[in-house]
UniProtKB/TrEMBL annotation:
Residues 9-56 form the Galactokinase N-terminal domain. Keywords: ATP-binding, Carbohydrate metabolism, Cytoplasm, Galactose metabolism, Kinase, Magnesium, Metal-binding, Nucleotide-binding, Transferase. Mg(2+) binds at residues 132, 164. ATP binds at residues 67, 126-132. This is Galactokinase. It is found in: Cytoplasm. InterPro entries: Galactokinase (IPR000705), Galactokinase_bac (IPR022963), Galactokinase_CS (IPR019741), GalKase_N (IPR019539), GHMP_kinase_C_dom (IPR013750), GHMP_kinase_C_sf (IPR036554), GHMP_kinase_N_dom (IPR006204), GHMP_knse_ATP-bd_CS (IPR006203). The record marks 27 as: Transition state stabilizer. PROSITE patterns: GALACTOKINASE (PS00106), GHMP_KINASES_ATP (PS00627). Substrate binds at residues 33-36, 226. Residues 288-367 form the GHMP kinase C-terminal domain. The active site is at residue 176.
Amino acid sequence: MNKDELLKDYQEVFSESGKDVFFSPGRINVIGEHTDYNGGHVFPAAISLGVYGVYGPRDDKKVRLYSGNVDGEIVEFDLDDDSVEKDKRFWTNYFKGMITYLRQREDGEKINHGFNLYIKADLPSGSGLSSSAAIEMLMGMILKDEFDLDVDRPTLARLGQKTENEFVGLNSGIMDQFACIMGKKDSAIFLDCNTMEYEYKPLKLGDYEIIIMSTNKEHTLADSAYNDRVSKCHKALEKLQTKLGIKALGELDDNTFDEYSYLINDETELKRARHAVSENGRTIRATKAMEDNDLEKLGRLIDASHISLHYDYEVTGKELDTLAEAAWKQDGVLGARMIGGGFGGSAIAIVKKNEAENFKKNVGKIYRDAIGYDASFYDAEIVDGTKRI
């Protein structure tokens, strides 16, 4: 998206010149799904699709938001208003939560005047590429920069998670916000969500590229299905803690989990916890495989991730299964799996570059025939995290 065009759009909406333009990326996750809130490892990367924001200061305490993607009028609220919005204005909660929590910090009094903000995304809404985290980190970085706040990027990620958990009501982990704001060009982040230790690993895929496959079926995560998965894992953890001194499922390896699984004694809780533990192990092994340039092993582990998400976590659904299973049958594919919360959204495939166009055409046809409407395909460029442009 062009900076000059964004400034022009801001001018048309607010009848004044915008001051600064920011970009916050969405994310993909190579492997490690539903492990973040279970204290496991993840392996995400920031992508070139994301959310742009044009900021202009005001001399009163009004915050005025306008989305170039949502038909409607300017949404206005007072800087001191920390109420949760409902219905059509629900999207503004991602901004309000970040404003509220940053103003509660020690130097929060620096946020002492309102602002206009024009936002526009080229990240498909409901795509499972983390548009909400991109918005939270956009708001966080704008407030950090424009009001000279003494807050680092990992802290902004934690405040984004707090916005999701406490303001919006989704019991999600830290991965999405961390990937959006800590992203590094051409690298994925190997993050231990239990300790918050992380390191950047170059995404060395050689003759292969990552293709994003969007189901074009929207998913809203702030619902019972996602929070139910979190709850089941927590119940399983509590039962394991009667014999094991652990704080998170991510501390267990497959063998230890197997030995103590008798404590869980509930089929659904057992399956949910088994996914969390096995997916964490897969993520550690997959990251090592990529470092060793064993891309075929990486691909097999990515496939195994989808199988676990289908059978043990039960979050895939017909659309995501159709994409992954169609991808597995194509020439030049190392691996494919759903990403994000599930029940819609997107999947990824690691595809040989010279097979990419055939891949999109073939998988697209299979999906349309099975589902009745088109999937969308995006080539993933791996970029830096949220920043002023």
